[in-house]
Design goal:
Blueprint: H1 4-33, H2 37-63, H3 83-110, H4 114-144, H5 148-161
Helix pairs in contact: 1-2, 1-3, 2-5, 3-4
The structure holds magnesium ion (MG).
Magnesium ion (MG) is lined by residues 17, 20, 50, 53, 97.
């Protein structure tokens, strides 16, 4: 059985995961509008991942006899300066998400909730991946700056490798149809 504190913190984190998914979808929409379909594809894959994270926590909360109470989603940003700006914000979001998962783990330690600690280990490892890949793309986009050739190359590369990191849905567009 979950303590009330852990239950509340899990619900908050479920909200963060779904909000991250919603934000990635908003980023995809911006890329679609600007015809960066490779970057958009990458964002769809990230969205699927975040929804999967949220559902993993949702299921865990239910399995431990907790009550899922979904919080409101935060309105995502809709305007971006350029592809680099999008990834810079995605990186900030991943770092913020790592912090809240870290804090949640800390709470599970304080509460001597070993099951929640064990469950959260997967998320901690996942955040190392998420931060690393987002940081890498952001750095490349910074180098590419306003060079159209470099941006087109990165757009194509990311489109090909969307969801290429472990545990993702391999670049499938929303709805799960094959790419
Ligand atoms: Mg996540």
């Amino acid at each position: 059985m979950l303590s009330k504190k852990i239950e509340a913190a899990l619900n908050t984190q479920i909200g963060h995961e779904f909000t991250a998914g919603y934000t990635y979808l908003s980023m995809a929409a911006w890329f679609e509008f600007n015809h960066w379909t490779g970057f958009a594809k990458w964002m769809y894959a990230q969205r699927e991942e975040e929804l999967m994270h949220g559902m993993k926590m949702y299921k865990f909360t239910c399995d431990r006899g907790g009550r899922v109470e979904l919080p409101a989603l935060v309105k995502p940003p809709t305007e971006f300066k350029n592809p680099h700006d999008v990834f810079a914000r995605a990186f900030l979001m991943e770092k913020a998400n790592s912090k809240t998962i870290n804090d949640l783990y800390g709470l599970a330690v304080d509460e001597r909730d070993y099951m929640t600690q064990s469950f959260l280990k997967w998320f901690l490892d996942e955040q190392v991946e998420e931060e690393n890949i987002t940081d890498e793309v952001e750095a490349l986009l910074k180098v590419a700056a306003d060079n159209p050739g470099a941006l087109v190359t990165l757009n194509n590369l990311l489109g090909q490798h969307a969801g290429g990191s472990p545990g993702t849905t391999a670049g499938r567009p929303p709805g799960g149809r094959p790419a």
